[in-house]
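User: Can you predict the 3D structure for this chain?
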Amino acid sequence: MEGNERFRALLEPVYAGALGFARHLSRARADGDDLFHEALIRASAKLATLRDDTAFKPWLYRIVISVHRNRLRRAFWRRFLPLPEQVSSDEPAASGNYRVSDWSPDAAEAARRAREALTTLPAAQREAIVLYEIEGWQVDEIALLQRCSASAVKSRLVRGRDRLRAYYEARHAAVPLLSGETP
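Assistant: Here is the predicted structure, written as C-alpha cells:
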C-alpha cells in the first residue's frame, strides 16, 4: 500500500503535464490517453527502481516516450490511417485541449491543425518539439530524456520546425495566422 501512496504523491504535481505530453505525441486524444495509462501502469510496476523522488518527472516522461516508441514499432501500419476529427467546433477547449484558454472556434481549429501537423513528424522530432515548445523543457533536459546530445536535440528542433513550416505552407497557405504570430 505504501508504494501506491508514494506513486500518487509523486504523480499528482506532474499528472496534467504528462497527460498533455502523451496526448501531443499521439494522433488522437484517445490514443494519448491510452498511451498515458499504459505508461502509468509501467511506471507503477517499476516504481521500486526509482531511487530519487526528485527525478520522478523525467523518469515518467522517459517511460511515456518508451511506450510511445514501442507502439510506433508495433503498429507501423497505423501511420497510414487518416486522422480522426479530434475536436469538434461545438466542443469546449477544456475537454479538447487543456492548454487552450478562452475557447473559440478559431482556437479549436488551430489546435486541430497543430495536432495534425505534429503527427507528420518522426517520433524523436515530435517529442523534442512537444517537450521544448509546449511543455517548456530545456534542451539539456530533453537530451537527458531522449538519451542523446544537446546538439542532437537542437538539430531535431530545427528539422522539426522546418517540417512543420513546410507542412503548414503546403496545406494551410490560405489559413490566416493567429493573432500575435508573425509570418
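The chain has two domains: 1-83, 120-183. Residues 120-183 form a domain with the Arc Repressor Mutant, subunit A fold (CATH 1.10.10.10).
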